[in-house]
Every structure is written in structure tokens, then in C-alpha cells.
């Protein structure tokens, strides 16, 4: 079985950087041939410019198989056959309903990108799938907890897949950022891997034998757990799941043949940890220094506060928030980096340069890249679309490269055993 990959919502190439252990020295990209990335799609609908796609093609080359087009308009039959489908996609409202005439069957909301993934699963039937999303996916929407993830699981089931998932906080496994993301791994019933995995109990898959337990060990402590079903016996179709499914998903679990098992687990890591201080640049431009009134605003935003606010109906209430470290601790991993990094807001990181003299600074773009474990200056491309502000935005949207690097190594062994 070929180690071919299709990358959806490719961004600036996080999956590819991890899977192929990409390096960049400022002039040349070096990419191992662990995996053959045969097709990639990146499209940002909210902007006229396509900075992420520009970066992807700047680093990996222009190709007819590097596609900058709305994935909803892409004919999925034109996507090459592939062994592994990967992508980090946005968390949206996945609800579905029948058309009024019921002639078209099930229809999801237009623009919801999960349905594009589901269409690829149906059309191309890739043997393996690895996806990444924000961890709130497991508990959305607030009015029907777990419904959205239940819809995803039923989509996988209808297309012949088993699924494992785990919420991974990168910092808890030695990486330089406290970033919690849910990783979803699916494997088709036609694979040898599926036949091997169904020999294990759900508990064995989650705690010892599955992809996540193997690469990101957890304590064997039995905490909370739950069991449910999204099978055809319990729900006629995916519309029924959308209308009726409600379930508390914990941070780990699996779905085999429609049976859903979930467990609350804790990390078990004894290796070294990478701190924010470890990734800082020794030399930086003075333009990142904060001073004067701007510094006072930063201190206010980072501090605790209680504010009187009004609801839409005019009723007043007290809004309060606790303090955030100012400056950020250098002996701990970075906090979760957002797309607003470096702008004057509460979530941006602040580095103490000389606290006795009240000198502080924001992160540099290179430090933002290091937090996500990209090569230095990965997003520093000659494109009008890629401003310095966009470089921070790209990293706030990206994944931690080190996590997918570990998973890619594991999947190499899986593919070899298929042969």
C-alpha cells in the first residue's frame, strides 16, 4: 500500500511538515520522503488574498495538485486515490435535516466543511483518516451536548470506518505550548489494521493498544467512562442522530461497529518539557518592545477586573475575570497561541526583557513559529498577502507539528503491515 496523502485545509503545511520532518534553512526546504503528499487544498473564503496557499506553494512548489479553490466546489472524483486523508477543519454547526420533499435525502448546512470531508470519504474511501479540531467539538452544541461529534461518528460508520479519538494537550507531552486539540483517527473495515484492532476491547484500544495510547501514554487509572450507540439499530439515519443524539464525550474514546465508548483519561509522561524560555530568540528588533501608554494598557488587560455590563434587555450584571501572568512565565510552556497573537489584547504573550526597568516585548514571528514547532521563518515569504500580522495569524491557526510527526511515524508502520 502506497504512503500517499491528501491534505485538506492544508494551511501552511503543518501535517506535511510533521509527517516528512521538514526543515528550512532560510534558502532551501529539505523534506524526507516518508510520505507522498499527492494533493492538497487550501482556500480562505473570508479574504481576497490567499496568504496560506502562497506559503504552501512557496515552500513545496507550485503544482496542479496544489489547489486553491473552495473545497465545496471541487469535484471529489478528481481527487487522486490515496491511502491517508488528513486535515484540520473548523468546528461548525453540523446539524442536518431532510429536504421538504425528502427526494434529496439528507442535507447538511451549506458551507459546513465537515460535509466536504464526508463526501471525500464516500467518494474515495481512503483506508486511513487523521483529523484535528478544537476540543469543544466533543461537547457542542451547548443545547444538545455531543450531537456534532455523534454526527461525525455516524458519517464514519456509514462509510465503513472505525474511529479513535483523544484530546491531547501538547505541553503535557513535552511540546512547547499548552494547546488542547482533539485528534480523530479512522480506519476502514477493509484494512488489515481494522481486523487487528477489533480483536481488542474498547478499553484496551484507549488505554494500551490504540494509536493514541501507543504514542501519548496515559495513566491506567480508571476514571469516568460512558457508553452509547450511533448504530442503524438505534438511529434510522444521520438525521435521526442530528435530531435525537445527546451524549457526554470524555477526552478519549473509540467507535467500533456503531458502539461508542468514551473514557476520561490523564497523561502519563516522564520525559523532558520544552518551555517558553527555551524557544526565545536571543536577538530581536526593537519594534517588538512595549513602552509608555501601550505598556500600561497591556498591564490593565492582563490584570483582574470586575466590570458592570448590560444585557441586550438593559439589565446590568457584573463581569469579572482573573489575572493572566504578566509577563509570561519562561519556565513553563507557552499558553495557547491564538490568531490574535502580538496584537494588544489579553491573550497575547508578553516577554520580560528587563522587568526592573519596566521593559517588555511581544513575541517575534519566529518565536510564534517555534511555539508551533515549524522551522524558523517558515511563513516569511515574498508575498504581499503575507504581512507580519498574517504570519502570527497563520501560527494561531496551525497545529503543533511535533504531535503529527509522532503520529506519522506510527502510521508508517501501519501501512507497511498492510502490505
Give structural attributes:
three-stranded antiparallel β-sheet; alpha+beta; 26% helix; ten-stranded mixed β-sheet; Rossmann fold; 419 residues; 22% strand; globular
What is the strand arrangement across the widest sheet?
A: 5-4-1-6-9-11-10-13-14-12
- Count up the domains: 2
Q: Give the biggest beta sheet.
A: 10 strands, mixed
CATH structural architecture of the largest domain: 3-Layer(aba) Sandwich
The geometry reads as globular
CATH topology of the largest domain: Rossmann fold
Number of strands: 19
Low-confidence stretches: none
**CATH uppermost class of the largest domain:** Alpha Beta
Radius of gyration: 22 Å
Question: How far from one another are the termini?
Answer: 6 Å
- DSSP strand (E) fraction? 15-25%
CATH homologous superfamily classification of the largest domain: Vaccinia Virus protein VP39
Average pLDDT score:
94
Helix content: 25-40%
Q: Count of DSSP helices?
A: 12
Provide the structure class. alpha+beta
Structure notes:
The chain is an alpha+beta fold and 419 residues long. It is built from twelve helices and 19 strands. The strands form five sheets. It has a ten-stranded mixed sheet, sandwiched between helices. Helix 2 (51-60) links the parallel strand 4 (36-41) and strand 5. The chain starts with a strand and ends with a helix.
Amino acid at each position: 500500500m502506497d504512503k500517499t496523502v491528501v491534505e485538506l485545509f492544508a494551511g501552511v503545511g503543518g501535517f506535511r511538515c510533521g509527517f516528512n520532518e521538514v526543515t528550512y534553512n532560510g534558502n532551501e526546504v529539505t523534506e524526507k520522503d516518508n510520505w507522498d503528499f499527492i494533493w492538497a487544498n487550501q482556500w480562505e473564503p473570508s479574504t481576497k488574498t490567499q496568504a496560506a496557499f502562497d506559503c504552501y506553494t512557496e515552500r513545496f512548489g507550485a503544482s496542479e495538485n496544489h489547489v486553491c479553490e473552495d473545497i465545496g466546489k471541487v469535484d471529489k472524483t478528481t481527487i487522486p486515490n490515496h491511502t491517508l486523508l488528513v486535515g484540520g477543519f473548523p468546528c461548525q454547526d453540523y446539524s442536518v435535516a431532510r429536504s421538504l420533499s425528502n427526494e434529496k435525502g439528507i442535507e447538511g448546512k451549506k458551507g459546513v466543511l465537515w460535509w466536504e470531508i464526508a463526501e471525500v470519504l464516500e467518494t474515495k474511501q481512503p483506508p486511513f483518516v487523521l483529523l484535528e479540531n478544537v476540543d469543544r467539538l466533543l461537547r457542542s452544541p451547548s443545547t444538545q451536548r455531543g450531537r456534532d461529534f455523534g454526527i461525525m461518528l455516524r458519517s464514519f460508520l456509514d462509510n465503513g470506518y472505525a474511529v479513535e479519538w483523544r484530546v491531547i494537550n501538547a505541553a503535557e507531552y513535552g511540546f512547547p505550548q499548552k494547546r488542547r486539540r482533539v485528534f480523530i483517527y479512522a480506519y476502514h473495515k477493509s484494512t488489515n489494521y481494522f481486523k487487528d484492532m477489533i480483536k481488542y476491547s474498547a478499553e484496551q484500544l484507549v488505554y494500551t493498544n490504540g494509536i493514541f495510547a501507543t504514542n501519548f501514554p496515559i495513566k491506567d487509572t480508571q476514571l469516568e467512562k460512558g457508553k452509547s450507540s450511533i448504530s442503524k439499530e438505534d438511529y434510522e439515519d444521520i438525521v435521526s442522530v442530528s435530531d435525537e443524539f445527546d451524549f457526554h464525550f470524555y477526552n478519549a474514546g473509540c467507535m467500533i461497529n456503531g458502539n461508542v465508548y468514551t473514557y476520561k483519561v490523564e497523561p502519563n509522561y516522564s520525559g523532558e518539557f520544552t518551555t517558553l524560555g527555551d524557544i526565545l530568540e536571543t536577538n530581536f528588533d526593537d519594534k517588538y518592545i512595549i513602552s509608555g501608554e501601550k505598556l500600561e494598557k497591556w498591564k490593565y488587560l492582563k490584570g483582574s477586573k470586575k466590570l458592570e455590563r448590560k444585557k441586550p434587555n438593559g439589565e446590568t450584571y457584573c463581569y469579572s475575570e482573573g489575572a493572566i501572568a504578566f509577563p509570561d512565565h519562561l519556565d513553563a510552556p507557552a499558553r495557547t497561541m491564538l490568531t490574535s497573537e502580538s496584537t494588544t489584547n489579553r491573550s497575547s504573550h508578553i516577554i520580560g526583557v528587563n522587568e526592573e526597568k519596566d521593559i517588555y516585548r511581544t513575541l517575534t514571528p519566529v518565536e510564534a513559529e517555534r511555539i508551533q514547532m515549524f522551522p524558523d521563518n517558515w511563513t516569511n515569504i515574498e508575498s504581499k498577502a503575507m504581512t507580519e500580522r498574517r504570519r502570527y495569524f497563520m501560527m494561531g491557526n496551525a497545529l503543533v507539528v511535533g504531535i503529527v510527526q509522532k503520529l506519522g511515524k506510527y502510521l508508517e508502520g501501519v501501512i507497511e503491515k498492510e502490505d
